[in-house]
Amino acid sequence: MALYAISDLHLALETDKPMDIFGEEWLNHDEKIKNNWIAKINNDDTVLIAGDISWSINIEGGKRDLEWIYELPGRKIIVKGNHDYWWTSIKKLNNMYDNIFFIQNNFFVYEDYAVCGTRGWINKDMESFNEHDEKIYNREIIRLRLSLDAAIKAGYKKIIVMMHYPPFNDKYDDNEFTEVMEEYSVEKVIYGHMHGPILKKIKGCIVKNNVQYMLTSCDYLNFDPMKLF
Most buried residue, 40, 43, 73, 218, by most Cβ within 10 Å? Predict the structure, then answer.
């Protein structure tokens, strides 16, 4: 019963969005993910997918991409990404599949760990950050706390958090997200969103104030799910 992680699948089975425009490594990237996934993951394993699942803009189009994920081995736990416009009500999503579970103000369990999370948002030190971003940022902090509180109330002490956006800037400075992680004694945080040349400049795995942060963007992982446990 192993635990794996990957993010930013950017599936486009129902959408004209060829990913190889972002680099030749993205050519047929869905087949790379599928082949690597099937080679190592079994039905009793769990895979955490930290957002940007599908390019579809509605659930009707997104279903084909979700069914592609559904047919892969293992149990999947998903958090929303910034491109997941297909994301509908959390109740509806969690009634769709028996091996895909969606996080929003809730949590799921892997052995003795609670898996919590939220999408996150852009960092406050970005020049483009404005009042609108402030509202979303604060809402995401609330959603993270709701997810964590639900796990704590249920008696879980070992916690993994999934976020789509990096929970810090490129200098790994403290902020409200990292403060929440430390307040709740989160053990591991996985995140995605980052692509391209910046991947060569950043640390994909760091430990900050006893919290381990791991980048799981699929191009950073060479389209191969990373084993956590």
Answer: 218
